[in-house]
Write a structure and sequence with these properties.
DUF4369 domain-containing protein, disordered N terminus, alpha+beta, signal, two-stranded antiparallel sheet
Length: 216
């Protein structure tokens, strides 16, 4: 195993341990929790605060008793901000290598964009709510010992797990991930391989791929 990949796995494991000790101070928003058995819980959902959390808190009303649902029993979580913006989270097993199918358990990932063929997910540090009731991500790091990371994943309709498309500072870069997973769009791949589109253009890259695969 390459050293950089090993360091990446160790950093993920360390991050999970730190996040598991993190106390969720996010507010409750209107929303719903869909359980794997088909049950739909509608009411007030505490906005998730990190990908590694094991439970999501729910209240039927403001004065109701809090109930926590285990991540392993959850299919999806949806919360709606006071301004009406919808955020969706899903517990997803993630494969960080292009080859193989090994994963480190499920992470509660933010749905970034999707169509009927593919979903893109995003994570970075912890999820926070600002004073304007907008969701943002926060990554705390120690300069010289750690580095802030942005992680993008995709899960096609026939995938049983999400795959890591790109992570900032990951050795294999965007090109390798794109060539592994964007074969349905040769024109997009050519632009990425020719460096016409780079990571800074990730929104355009994802939007283009979603448009190409929208009828698949």
């Amino acid at each position: 195993m390459k050293l950089k990949l090993l360091l990446f796995i160790l950093s993920i494991t360390f991050s999970i341990n730190i996040h598991s000790q993190n106390i969720n101070t996010n507010p409750y928003w209107q929303g719903e929790i869909k359980l794997k058995d088909g049950t739909l819980k509608k009411g007030l959902v505490q906005v998730p605060n990190n990908p590694a959390q094991s439970r999501v808190a729910f209240k039927l009303t403001e004065n109701s008793k809090k109930v926590k649902f285990k991540k392993k029993n959850i299919e999806a979580v949806k919360v709606v901000s006071k301004s009406g913006k919808i955020y969706e989270f899903e517990p997803v097993a993630v494969v960080i290598t292009i080859k193989g199918n090994a994963s480190l358990g499920k992470s509660l990932l933010l749905v970034y964009n999707q169509n009927n063929y593919v979903k893109f997910y995003f994570s970075s540090g912890v999820y926070r709510v600002n004073k304007n009731d907008e969701l943002y991500t926060l990554y705390r790091f120690i300069q010289g010992q750690d580095f802030p990371t942005l992680n993008y994943y995709l899960k096609k309709r026939d995938y049983d797990k999400a795959r890591l498309l790109y992570m900032t500072s990951l050795a294999r870069g965007l090109k390798k991930g794109a060539n592994a997973y964007f074969k349905e769009d040769p024109e997009l791949l050519q632009k990425i391989n020719n460096k016409e589109l780079r990571f800074k253009d990730i929104d355009e890259i994802i939007a283009t791929y979603l448009n190409t695969t929208k009828n698949m």
